[in-house]
Amino acid sequence: MLKAMITMDKLKVFGLTYAIERVPYISRDEYRAGEIDFEKQEIRILDSLSVEHQKQTIIHEMIHAIFVGLGMNDYSDNEALVQSLATALHQCLTENHGLI
Ligand SMILES: [Zn+2]
Questions:
Q1: How far is the CA of 74 from the centre of ligand 1 (A)?
Q2: What is the pTM of this model?
Q3: Is 4 contained in some domain?
Q4: How many domains is the chain built from?
Q5: 35 alpha carbon to ligand 1 midpoint, in Å?
Q6: 46 Cβ partners below 8 Å, 6+ apart?
Q7: Environment of ion ligand 1 (residues, CB < 5 A)
């Protein structure tokens, strides 16, 4: 059975377009669901994640891009802050139909 996956392949943040790639692994050294490469403008997410988790991971990487785009790199480096915002935004935006 084919695993469900999201269809979006790019994300725009502050005039920059990031290509979204699904990959079988991010790092061999530690578990990571996704990562963002600011120089290459690429977001990589694990292809084994559920659709919900893929979306939450893209939001996580989007928040990194927003903070870096605003020149707030210290906030981008705070993974707990980024993940807290990603979890909150994902839940609020997906469970409040009609808001966006
Ligand atoms: Zn992160």
A1: 12
A2: 0.93
A3: no
A4: 1
A5: 6
A6: 22, 23, 24, 25, 26, 32, 33, 34, 54, 57
A7: 79, 82
